[in-house]
Amino acid sequence: MITVKNLQKAFGKLEILKGIDLTIQKGEVIVVIGPSGSGKSTFLRCLNLLEQPTGGEITFEGQSITDRKHDINVTREKMGMVFQQFNLFPHKTVLQNITLAPVKVKKQSPAEADKIAMDLLRTVGLEDKKDAYPSQLSGGQKQRVAIARALAMQPHVMLFDEPTSALDPEMVGEVLEVMKKLAEQGMTMVIVTHEMGFAREVGDRILFMDGGFIVEQGTPAEVFGSPKHARTQDFLSKVL
Ligand code: ADP
Ligand code: MG
């Protein structure tokens, strides 16, 4: 579904991604782990072109999306993204947050968008909050709305950048549960997280990033059970 070849990103003279190679299959759940500052967020943001890569190539569903002629908006619609800070529209209700883009961008009728949104709210367990405003929700509820909002665009892949890092500990589980359900339904997902239990349980493949490279990758059993590289061993010894 996605092929990344020698992906590079620099901010001015500062090289952040130094050559990332990766192939993501449809339905695969990739979990990206690694120390702060290693380039995990930059990598995700390059995948959906929130950041313009400075080198290399990304193909998505057979098309080069790093080609200058490519329409970025077409790709973004197919890649849902969920951030650490939920980024909900504060002056819109839960239902309006979810239906806004499908009506504006996908040209769905309001009735159709409402119906899809209610189905999604049921999936994330928040049917009864459809008329609430973000300020009336807990962090975990806000993040579940953000996930429903991303799903409303019917993306082909979902990117998560530390979706539970801003949550109080007691709310982490409800968000991970929704993500696990998505994974079980076959959604292709790339997830940056520090939740190692979740990574081990739900990830098909774990990538360990450090210093702008993928240092090591493998199944959860391989990476967590017998990490090969000293840097991976060192990182895991601090977080496990
Ligand atoms: P991670 O998500 O692994 O913590 P990031 O991808 O956020 O790492 O950041 C990697 C490095 O890139 C950091 O040193 C950060 O300061 C730098 N960086 C990220 N975004 C920018 C930017 N817009 N301009 C300059 N430097 C940036
Ligand atoms: Mg980050």
User: Using DSSP, what is the number of strands?
Assistant: 10
Structural class: alpha/beta
Give the helices and strands as they follow along the chain: EEEHEEHEHHHEHEHEEHH
Oligomer: single chain
Give the number of helices: 9
Give a list of the ligands: adenosine-5'-diphosphate, magnesium ion
Radius of gyration: 18 Å
For the record, give the distance between the C-alpha atoms at the N and C termini, rounded to a whole number. 31 Å
Q: Which geometry do the CA atoms define? A: globular
Spatial sequence of strands, sheet with the most strands:
6-7-8-3-9-10
- Largest sheet geometry: 6 strands, mixed
Q: Quote the average pLDDT.
A: 97
The helix content is 25-40%
Domain ABC transporter: 2-236
Membrane topology: Peripheral membrane protein
Subcellular location: Cell membrane
Pfam families: ABC_tran
Structure, explained:
The chain has helices at 40-47, 72-78, 94-104, 110-123, 139-151, 169-184, 196-202, 220-225, 230-239; strands at residues 2-11, 14-24, 29-33, 55-60, 63-64, 79-82, 157-161, 188-192, 205-210, 213-218. The protein has 240 residues and is an alpha/beta fold. It has a 6-stranded mixed β-sheet with strand order 6-7-8-3-9-10, sandwiched between helices. It has a 4-stranded antiparallel β-sheet with strand order 2-1-4-5, covered by helices on one side. The longest helix is centred in the last third of the chain and has 16 residues, at 169-184. The two termini are 31 Å apart. The mean pLDDT is 97. Magnesium ion (MG) is lined by residues 40-41, 161-162.
